UniProtKB/TrEMBL annotation:
Species per Swiss-Prot/TrEMBL record: Streptococcus constellatus subsp. pharyngis SK1060 = CCUG 46377
Protein name: Rhamnan synthesis protein F domain protein
Length: 266
């Protein structure tokens, strides 16, 4: 708004505001725009809404909002954006602006719709009536084209199911979700590992490489477990074992002397 200016945007048939906190679109957006922009009773719209609570009025959630020309040229819209100021904390932005843009426009006589109207939806089992955050299965069921990044983090227990649903019902590349979440979250979390397993491929030819495997032994009682797992290797390798103190060295040496052959101590 600052860069283009509130006067310049009056020249557009509609103005869409969205942020980068979501994955998507999961479904074709053309049908969504045609649905709302061809409906004269809809002045502005979004993906999901938030029902009225003690803290907030009913409003469109701000991660995706689209406004018709009649809204954009209105004094209510212009005045709202001219009075917006920066905040350091996101909660301050939510408190001052997310719900207020909807209530301001509704008070000016405009009407809104959403792809997924959550106001009268069942919230049983939900901690809070925020479907975009606490109920991603409903987001997919109602084909809201965007799913929030923080929703994946908050619903790790069902994230593998969400990935399967997205892969089955849409053409959106799930690998993009896995890649992004691996950068902003711990990459070895269980909900991500299911998509990272390497398939077992039978090695047809012996690897023509000299391979060294280094095992540092801190807990000697685990040495046998590691050596057993190494038996699954289908290639030749030299194993180098190190440890951190003389006691572990002696224990490891004693164990290796009983269980293995062709070893040397350095």
């Amino acid at each position: 708004m600052v860069h283009i200016g509130t006067e310049e945007i009056k020249n557009y048939d509609s103005v869409t505001l969205m942020n980068d906190t979501c994955f998507g679109p999961l479904w074709d957006m053309q049908k969504v725009y045609q649905r709302f922009e061809n409906d004269s009773s809809v002045d502005f719209w979004g993906m999901t809404n938030f029902r009225q609570t003690k803290q907030f009025q009913e409003h469109i959630q701000s991660y995706y909002m689209s406004f018709s020309k009649r809204v954009v040229v209105s004094s209510a819209f212009q005045t709202f954006w001219q009075n917006v100021r920066d905040f350091t904390y996101v909660q301050d932005v939510i408190d001052h602006y997310e719900s207020n843009i909807t209530t301001t426009l509704v008070a000016a006589g405009f009407k809104y719709r959403t792809v997924f109207d959550t106001v009268n939806e069942d919230t049983e089992g939900m901690l809070h009536p925020d479907f975009s955050y606490y109920n991603p299965t409903a987001i997919l069921k109602h084909k809201a084209p965007f799913i929030k990044v923080k929703t994946i983090v908050a619903n790790q227990g069902i994230a593998p199911y969400l990935f399967d649903e997205i892969e089955c019902k849409t053409s959106y590349p799930v690998d993009l979700i896995i890649s992004h979440m691996s950068k902003i979250d711990m990459p070895d979390l269980p909900y991500l590992l299911g998509r990272k397993y390497l398939s077992m491929v039978q090695q047809k030819d012996q690897l023509d490489l000299k391979i060294a495997v280094h095992l540092h032994v801190f807990y000697v009682d685990l040495l046998q477990e590691f050596l057993e797992s190494f038996k699954s290797f289908d290639f030749d390798y030299d194993l180098f074992i190190t440890t951190d103190n003389q006691e572990n060295y002696q224990k490891s040496k004693k164990f290796l002397h009983k269980t293995t052959k062709n070893h040397r101590y350095l």
